[in-house]
């Protein structure tokens, strides 16, 4: 049971990989939701094993007293040729999340990404960073998408993310600088902050006023060092086990939780592991992580 003063949920990516499809691929929606209920948590994010029909999903969640908080939305807004089709798609996404009673849209630009950009070819090796003009085109597009989200009572929360063009500290800073604070918020992710070279606590303090959603994720630094020595890409890092749940890696969550609590954060935070569930049992890892975070809170 969540004893923290903000809303705590868990992402189905702990059970079923989104970018590494073989991770937990045989796991069913019912298994995931039953585990979440057993953990005493009442919020989740959309996952690929969940039913896409809103009525069916609402029924499955409702009988376990779980709420759909968000759903990831990839966008390709740095390319003006895709602007209108992307915004049309964003509107459909917002309509679905409004039907589900969600609060935020986890949003990430895929332009330039090695894995997520549909324009890339298999032989390429690196993320293509944005030019100055692409930055401004992206910011304009995100402001428009944020206005759509607001129409539906939602907030666009931008997910800085490994393997994308908004990954490193200066890229996060630039995105926040170029976008409208009333339309574009930040999804603060502890694991992706570390992965992208930021100190998670520094990032939290710097951009707290823009944060409307949180992912709590940890890092195994030795595995990350090994992966980088082998020049593994982002998906390769997931396969190697770079990510884990809070309390099982190197990030010190005590000051992070203290900062969130002291500032009165009352939005949702999702517990994330994103590792092979055949090796790291999702329920057990989540249970221990919850105990870890609650012990930090009790001693804060």
TrEMBL record:
Gene3D superfamilies to which the protein is assigned, alphabetical: Divalent-metal-dependent TIM barrel enzymes
One family name in Pfam for this protein: AP_endonuc_2
Highest taxon of source: Bacteria
InterPro entries, per the entry: IolE/MocC, IolE/XylAMocC-like, Xyl_isomerase-like_sf, Xyl_isomerase-like_TIM-brl
Location of the Xylose isomerase-like TIM barrel domain: 34-295
Name of the protein this chain belongs to: Inosose dehydratase
């Amino acid at each position: 049971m969540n004893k923290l003063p903000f809303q705590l949920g868990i992402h189905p990516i702990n059970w079923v990989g989104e970018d590494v499809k073989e991770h937990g691929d045989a796991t069913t929606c019912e298994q995931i939701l039953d585990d979440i209920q057993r953990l005493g948590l009442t919020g989740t994010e959309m996952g690929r094993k969940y039913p896409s029909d809103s009525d069916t999903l609402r029924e499955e969640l409702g009988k376990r007293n779980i709420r759909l908080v968000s759903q990831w939305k990839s966008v390709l807004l740095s390319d003006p040729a895709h602007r209108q089709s992307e915004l049309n798609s964003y509107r459909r996404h917002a309509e679905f999340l409004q039907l589900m009673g969600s609060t935020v849209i986890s949003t990430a630009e895929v332009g330039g990404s090695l894995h997520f950009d549909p324009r890339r070819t298999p032989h390429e090796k690196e993320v293509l960073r944005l030019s100055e003009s692409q930055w401004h085109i992206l910011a304009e597009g995100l402001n428009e998408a944020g206005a759509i989200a607001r129409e539906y009572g939602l907030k666009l929360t931008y997910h800085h993310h490994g393997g994308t063009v908004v990954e490193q500290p200066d890229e996060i800073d630039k995105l926040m600088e170029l976008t409208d604070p009333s339309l574009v918020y930040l999804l603060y992710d502890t694991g992706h902050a570390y992965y992208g070279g930021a100190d998670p606590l520094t990032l939290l303090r710097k951009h707290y006023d823009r944060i409307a959603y949180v992912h709590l994720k940890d890092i195994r630094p030795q595995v990350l060092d090994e992966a980088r020595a082998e020049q593994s890409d982002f998906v390769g890092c997931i396969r190697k086990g770079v990510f884990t749940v809070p309390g099982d890696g190197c990030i010190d969550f005590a000051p992070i939780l203290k900062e969130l609590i002291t500032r009165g954060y009352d939005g949702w935070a999702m517990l994330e592991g994103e590792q092979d569930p055949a090796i790291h049992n999702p329920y057990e890892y989540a249970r221990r992580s919850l105990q870890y975070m609650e012990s930090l809170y009790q001693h804060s």
